[in-house]
Each structure stands twice: as C-alpha cells, then as structure tokens.
Amino acid sequence: MSIVSALSKIKESIPNTVTLVAVSKTKPNELILEAYQAGQRVFGENKVQELVQKNETLAKDIEWHMIGHLQRNKVKYIAPFVSLIHGVDSAKLLKEINKQGNKHGRVVPVLLQIHIAQEETKFGFSKEEITAFLNSASFVEMKNIEVHGLMGMATNSSNKKLVAAEFAHLKSLFDELKSSVFSSSPDFKEISMGMSGDYDIAIEQGSTMIRVGSSIFGKRN
Ligand SMILES: *Cc1c(COP(=O)(O)O)cnc(C)c1O
To answer: What pTM was estimated for this model as a whole?
Structure first.
C-alpha cells in the first residue's frame, strides 16, 4: 500500500480528536515528503541526530516530536525546535530540558513517560515516583517546561486484554493527576499511547495521540 493511502486509511479509522504522529524513524526524506504532501504535519523520531538532520532539511512547518529515550547530554540539540518530547522519564532529564529551554527562550512541551508494561526494560516513572516528583519544590520551580500529559507503552503482546488493562491504567493515572496536580493546567490534556499494533485498543481506552510508524511507512530494517 502507498504511504498516501495508508495514511488516509488510518485517518479515516480514528476520531478526528486523536492526533496522529507519523513515526518516520530510519525512513528517508523522500518518504516523509510523500506523507507531507498528503497533508501530514506531525512526525516522530527517536534518535536525536536523525531528528536534527531532518528538521534542517525538511519543511519548516513540520512539528517534530521526540518519541524515543532521550539522553540528557543531547537535549541541547533539539531544545531550540522540538514541538513535543514524549519520553521524559526522570527528574534529571526534565531539569535539563528546563535548563535548555531557558537558554533558548522557550517553554518546551513534554509528556511524562509512565511505566505501564510488564517488561522490566521499558522506561518510565512509576505512579509513586511521579506523584512524589510532581509535588516536589523542584518541579514547581521549572518555568521552561510545560507538561502536556502522559505517555506510555504497553507490553508487546497479542493478549489484547492485557494491553487494554495497561492503557486503562495510564488513563486512570491521567485522570487522577488532571483532577489534582494539574487541575488548573488546561495544557495537561494528552495521553500518548498506541502504536501500529495496538492503537485501536489505545483509542478505546482514551488515547489522544497515537504514534504510528510501520503501518504508514512499511517495515523498518
Ligand atoms: C518506533 C516507535 C513507535 C512506532 O512503532 P510502529 O510499531 O512502527 O508503529 C511508537 N512509539 C515509539 C516510542 C517508538 O519508538
């Protein structure tokens, strides 16, 4: 299937309130351009160097999202232009983003990554960690970041009940924070969950932002 028809098929199958992040990691500019010409403007990458290169060479009205694990020493390269950082998984990383945002005169939008999967290897805060951190003085002092919501990755499993339960867990934590810490923060509104294999389940569970790569651009090597 062509990129254009894959994109329109996905767009037709999701509510128009859900943001589609086209995950273009490892894919060349020509393919991104095909999606761009079909109207797609939000793209996700997971490597800093690739993200910087693509931002420099492609259209300026693209919104670039950093979706992968981000190392602190690389924040400085994307802080000037990144539209949203999905995978913020530690207080130290958030502190660095705040510092670089300040340096570039920007408030950088971020999502806090929550550990919802069974796998040990997936990054993210636990519920206890995030609650403690959001109530700490050091969070309140950060003026150059803006928390737009939460992000999570479900277990890579064909067990749909398990995946749905993990997404439901993220949604309930979101609701809890929305009615407490973020009760007067209208920007706290996104739940980034769902990829090619599970975005339909994620949307059923309240996702507002899906990150889809292979279903648009084909398999990666
Ligand atoms: C690669 C990646 C995706 C997209 O995965 P697909 O299965 O190709 O849709 C989504 N989220 C993150 C964090 C990724 O690294």
So the answer is: 0.97
